[in-house]
């Protein structure tokens, strides 16, 4: 089995994926991801770009390289569109603003969490997909050992760009909730010392300053004039509360961001400004699935794909299965159990931690809001859930 397409390393080749729309892959090395797609929307005044990658000079070099292929310079970029508040999507934006005065379009609720502010370890991919990928990698390594193959290094022979950080693409990020009690109670997780030092260094280098100032906030139903035609803003909370997509009815394309990815399920965190982030995600998936006339979806990671509606259904099914599994686990317990206990039955030991608990919490809270589970806090303040 091959790598998932979202994990492929960035191919520097620029491709036209729709009239006046270019796909430019930028290198990232994040758990489960090998590139982010920046889309350039060309018009008479230059271009707008969507999701210009991670902060830092390594990414900027790749941006310059891709733009050059399209005979564009950074100063030709009049607008930067950021689909949501994750660093692999907004990283390059601040530099376009600072050096070339570009405007920044993001949803009006755009807000970047402090804990994640200087890390490119923001959970992007569901833990289940990360586990599947790790199992696959382990299998491949074992196979390589069996064959006595000394060349069992990760990465394909087509690696063009190399990530600039040392995070293995298959590490489970222990991210999400640091430095305080979690909303579900119990022990507060602290990041490992090495990670804390890394954050400190990045902060000192101005990593936290790379969050762009949004000059043009947008909301559901707004119309933008891009690539020489009208595009519609769809607010799609779920993966983050501030996520939005762009619908281009004239060309039949849909800029999907991380809302709908071709082969992986985006991470849905239980730590959110939304009371039931999973329900928000389902609504947003339905809203997108109902759009007719889309012949190409353009995701932020992976290749353009055709059947957007089908993919929204697959992603929903993934979560329905997860909810079924939680009901089953609750029956097995036969008593109220904590988020940590549920997460330890849902995920393998090496994945235990704040990300596993955060995803589990999102699903348990969804069941509670649907009145399919009850919760209360024990004497220590730990939330306990029992499904009906
Ligand atoms: Zn994201
Ligand atoms: Zn992403």
Protein described:
- The protein has 388 residues and is of the alpha/beta class.
- The chain is 31% helix and 21% strand.
- It has a 7-stranded mixed sheet with strand order 1-2-3-4-5-6-7. A 5-stranded mixed sheet has the order 8-9-10-11-12, with no helix packed on it. A 3-stranded antiparallel sheet has the order 13-15-14.
- Bound molecules: zinc ion (ZN) (2 copies).
- One zinc ion (ZN) binds at residues 36, 86, 88-89, 124, 258, 300-301.
Summarize the structure.
With 388 residues, the chain is an alpha/beta fold. 31% of the residues lie in helices and 21% in strands.
Strands, helices and their partners?
Blueprint: E1 15-18, E2 21-30, E3 33-43, E4 46-50, H1 57-69, E5 77-81, H2 87-90, H3 93-100, E6 103-107, H4 127-146, H5 193-204, E7 216-218, E8 223-226, E9 229-235, E10 244-248, E11 253-257, H6 277-289, E12 296-299, H7 308-333, E13 337-338, H8 339-346, H9 354-369, E14 373-377, E15 383-387
Parallel strand pairs: 4-5, 5-6, 6-7, 11-12
Antiparallel strand pairs: 1-2, 2-3, 3-4, 8-9, 9-10, 10-11, 13-15, 14-15
The structure holds zinc ion (2 copies).
Residues 84, 86, 124, 239, 258 line the site of one zinc ion.
């Amino acid at each position: 089995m091959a790598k998932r397409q979202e994990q492929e390393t960035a191919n520097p080749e620029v491709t036209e994926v729709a009239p006046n729309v270019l796909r430019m892959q930028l290198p990232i090395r994040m758990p489960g991801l090998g590139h982010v797609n920046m889309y350039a929307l060309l018009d008479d005044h230059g271009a707008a770009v969507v999701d210009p990658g991670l902060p830092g000079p390594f990414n900027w070099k790749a941006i310059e390289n891709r733009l050059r292929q399209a005979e564009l310079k950074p100063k030709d970029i009049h607008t930067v569109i950021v689909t949501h508040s994750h660093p692999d999507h907004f990283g390059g934006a601040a530099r376009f603003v600072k050096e070339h005065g570009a405007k920044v379009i993001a949803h009006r609720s755009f807000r970047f969490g402090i804990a994640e502010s200087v890390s490119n370890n923001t959970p992007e991919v569901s833990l289940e997909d990360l586990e599947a990928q790790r199992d696959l990698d382990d299998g491949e390594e074992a196979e390589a050992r069996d064959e006595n193959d000394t060349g069992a290094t990760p990465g394909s022979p087509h690696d063009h760009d190399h990530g600039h950080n040392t995070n293995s693409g298959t590490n489970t990020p222990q991210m999400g909730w640091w430095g305080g009690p979690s909303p579900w109670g119990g022990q507060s997780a602290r990041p490992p010392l090495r990670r804390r030092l890394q954050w400190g260094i990045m902060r000192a280098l101005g990593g936290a300053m790379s969050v762009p100032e949004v000059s043009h906030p947008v909301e559901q139903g707004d119309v933008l004039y891009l690539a020489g035609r009208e595009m519609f803003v769809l607010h799609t909370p779920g993966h983050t509360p501030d996520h939005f997509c762009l619908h281009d009815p004239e060309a039949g394309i849909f800029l999907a961001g991380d809302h709908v990815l071709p082969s992986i399920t985006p991470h849905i965190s239980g730590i959110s400004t939304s009371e039931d982030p999973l329900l928000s995600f389902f609504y947003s998936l339905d809203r997108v699935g109902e759009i007719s006339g889309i012949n190409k979806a353009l995701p932020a990671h992976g290749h353009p794909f055709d059947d957007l509606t089908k993919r929204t259904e697959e992603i929903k099914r993934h979560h329905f299965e997860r909810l079924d599994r939680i009901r089953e686990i609750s029956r097995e317990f036969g008593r109220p159990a904590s988020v940590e206990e549920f997460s330890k039955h849902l995920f393998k030991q090496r994945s235990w931690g704040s990300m596993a608990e955060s995803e589990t919490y999102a699903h348990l809270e969804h069941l509670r809001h649907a009145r399919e589970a009850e919760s209360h806090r024990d004497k220590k303040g730990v939330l306990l859930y029992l499904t009906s």
